């Protein structure tokens, strides 16, 4: 930023400093650096300033100041988003509003089954606060040590517990939100039943910072599930994994907590790049499933249920082998194979992420057909396919041909178009859980009907008539 720009911006910066204190308005490029590039490294922008308020009142002051000067605001939590929605564009005119200082657990009520938190509380800390009160906050993501509950709500995050507990929106009972003009909506009553009009909480869930800044939330808690039965299962195909899901549902019912898939390519990357990772099975397989049953201390039949599932699967040629966790350490090791895939693929090199969902019945045929299509677009391309198969959600994340990072970048539009076209043809969605952000804002609109896009734009205009909240994210400008 030049001195002359600084001079022009002084009134806004002064007001921001008055709102949150000098130390929490960052403009030095070294201080700002970590806030302007996303986890994937694909999106790197520039910020007019990074502002770090410590309370809802301070967020309201910051947003009101930005509203008065018509300055765009980019809300940011843990900056683990995978679609570039939490970082500014290249203009240098946007204020990044980081919730990182708002980390207070406001209340835990085990009997009501609720926890009330500031938006900047890290997901793992929400889980820990619930556990401290003898309850479970079930949401679980590979990024849970850094992502914030505000970011989870803003993206309607998924993860590995959706099969049993649902997406983030199903865990949200109420929100506190600073609106684009700086007013505060307090919707933190946390009632299970409240049929008094439009559901404003759900309007903000999944809005990716485009309608307001979430500053607090009331979330649902559940009984703890200290018992687990976990297996890493070799399966011949996606079709076999889907058939195994049916068997697992039949035997385990509501105890089925996790059902994740990974192809051999994904496992190979984890084995290559994650220190300490080892293949728990002797013979290689094209596909693997991580299956976990979870229950209360009184649920003693989980191991038997898992054994019955695996026995039936082997008999029906749906599984060739399985490693069953015999201790908490072995369970952690199996989970690390699944949770390490994103990180390992990032270390490997250029990656093109596709977070797609399809009707489960179409999943296997879709995944099978896609490989040859991509091979025609870019020979040698490596589909690293994994994810939440129990939810119909595959991370169809394509790695570059060996040594061909630039080729992948050049072919990216054609590869993504091929994938999105076939997802749309199969009545699927191009974003199952990561949101649209900057990466997919245009594609999101292109694959929706005009009526859907009109409705979304009408909501945006009604809440944010000046277009100040996260412009360019979710909806193309
Ligand atoms: P950020 O990245 O900071 O922001 C994400 C979006 O939310 C942006 O648009 C931002 O403007 C908006 N936002 C953030 N905070 C607020 C707020 N308080 N008010 C309004 N808007 C806000 N995601 C899944 O769904 N499932 C997974 O399994 C999963 N696994 C992951 C594994 C790894 C290794 C990584 C790096 C990411 C993974 N993610 C996953 C993606 C990411 O962690 C989630 O999208 C998460 O919800 C983002 O939270 P955050 O606090 O980091 O948000
Ligand atoms: C995961 O489930 O591990 C992530 O959502 C996938 C990703 O990083 O693309
Ligand atoms: Zn995921």
From TrEMBL:
Keywords on record: FAD, Flavoprotein, Oxidoreductase
Family matches, as InterPro entries: FAD-bd_oxidored_4_C, FAD-bd_PCMH, FAD-bd_PCMH-like_sf, FAD-bd_PCMH_sub1, FAD-bd_PCMH_sub2, FAD-linked_Oxase-like_C, FAD-oxidored/transferase_4, Oxid_FAD_bind_N
Domain of life of the native organism: Bacteria
GO biological-process terms attached to the record: respiratory electron transport chain
Names of required cofactors: FAD
An annotated Gene Ontology molecular function: oxidoreductase activity
Domain spans labelled FAD-binding PCMH-type: 43-224
Family named by the database record: Belongs to the FAD-binding oxidoreductase/transferase type 4 family.
Full protein name: FAD/FMN-containing dehydrogenase
Species assigned in the record: Nocardioides cavernae
């Amino acid at each position: 930023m030049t001195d002359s720009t600084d001079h022009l911006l002084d009134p806004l910066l002064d007001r921001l400093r008055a709102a949150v204190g000098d130390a929490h308005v960052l403009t030095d490029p070294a201080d700002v650096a970590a806030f302007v590039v996303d986890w994937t490294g694909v999106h790197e922008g520039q910020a007019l300033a990074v502002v770090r308020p410590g309370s809802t009142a301070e967020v309201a002051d910051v947003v009101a100041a930005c509203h008065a000067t018509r300055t765009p605001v980019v809300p940011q939590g843990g900056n683990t988003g995978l679609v570039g929605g939490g970082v500014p564009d290249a203009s240098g005119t946007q204020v990044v509003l980081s919730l990182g200082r708002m980390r207070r657990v406001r209340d835990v009520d085990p009997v009501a089954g609720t926890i009330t938190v500031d938006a900047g509380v890290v997901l793992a800390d929400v889980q820990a606060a619930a556990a401290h009160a003898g309850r479970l906050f079930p949401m679980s993501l590979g990024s849970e040590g850094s992502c914030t509950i505000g970011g989870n709500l803003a993206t309607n995050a998924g993860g590995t517990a959706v099969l049993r507990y649902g997406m983030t929106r199903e865990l949200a009972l109420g929100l506190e939100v600073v609106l684009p003009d700086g007013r505060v909506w307090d919707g933190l009553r946390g009632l299970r039943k409240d049929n008094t009009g439009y559901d404003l909480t759900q309007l903000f869930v999944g809005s990716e910072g485009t309608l307001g800044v979430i500053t607090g939330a009331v979330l649902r808690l559940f009984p703890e599930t200290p018992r687990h039965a976990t297996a890493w299962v070799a399966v011949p195909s996606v079709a076999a994994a889907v058939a195994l899901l049916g068997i697992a549902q039949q035997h385990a019912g509501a105890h089925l907590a996790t059902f994740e898939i990974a192809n051999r390519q994904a496992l190979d990357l984890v084995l290559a790049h994650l220190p300490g990772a080892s293949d728990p099975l002797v013979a290689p397989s094209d596909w693997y499933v991580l299956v976990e049953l979870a229950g209360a201390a009184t649920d003693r039949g989980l191991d038997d249920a898992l054994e019955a599932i695996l026995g039936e699967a082997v008999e029906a040629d749906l599984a060739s082998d399985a490693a069953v966790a015999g201790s908490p350490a072995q369970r952690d090791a199996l989970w690390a194979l699944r949770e390490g895939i994103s990180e390992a693929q990032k270390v490997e090199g250029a990656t093109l992420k596709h977070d797609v969902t399809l009707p489960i019945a179409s999943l296997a045929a879709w995944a099978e057909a896609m490989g040859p299509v991509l091979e025609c677009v870019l020979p040698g391309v490596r589909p690293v396919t994994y994810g939440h198969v129990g939810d119909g959600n595959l991370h169809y994340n394509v790695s570059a041909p060996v040594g061909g990072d630039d080729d992948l970048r050049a072919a990216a539009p054609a590869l993504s178009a091929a994938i999105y076209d076939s997802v749309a043809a199969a009545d699927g969605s191009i974003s199952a859980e990561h949101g649209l952000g900057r990466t997919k804002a245009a594609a999101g609109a292109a694959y929706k009907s005009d009526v859907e896009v009109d409705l979304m734009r009408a909501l945006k205009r009604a809440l944010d008539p000046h277009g100040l909240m996260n412009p360019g994210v979710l909806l193309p400008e």
